[in-house]
Amino acid sequence: MRFMPMVDLTPQVRLMLARGALKLQPGQWVRGERGRGRYLRTDARSGVTYVSWVRPGDDFKDQASRFGRACRKGFVGRHAWRYDRVKAVRNRQARLWPDELSAAF
């Protein structure tokens, strides 16, 4: 993997991420008001930047496992392909919901 320097998450950098003018790789180290952490993603609709922050007293194994769980839960990076399957299940359940609701009454 190529070396990527730690990026400071200033308000201007957050704005550039939200507007799509700047792209960071998932897992890239960032520094912000909460300390340092690993970048997950930026929501394009709301402009919110998600970061897996390093907690005080964490060793690398604990932080790496928490980052991995966040990637799986948020469908980030190599786990993004799983979102299509979850989205299909959610759509199927949404179509069934009105039928189940009317049958209950």
Spell out the key features of this protein:
alpha+beta, globular, 105 residues, single chain, 18% strand, 3 helices
Task: Write a compact overview of the structure shown.
The protein contains 3 helices and 4 strands. With 105 residues, it is α+β, with helices and mostly antiparallel strands. The N and C termini lie far apart (58 Å).
Could you explain how this protein is built, in words?
The protein has one domain. The model has no long low-confidence stretch (mean pLDDT 84). With 105 residues, it is α+β, with helices and mostly antiparallel strands. The longest helix is centred in the last third of the chain and has 23 residues. 45% of the residues lie in helices and 18% in strands. The chain contains 3 helices and 4 strands; from the N terminus they run E-H-E-E-E-H-H. The termini are far apart. It is globular, with a radius of gyration of 18 Å. Helix 1 links the parallel strand 1 and strand 2. A 4-stranded mixed β-sheet has the order 1-2-3-4.
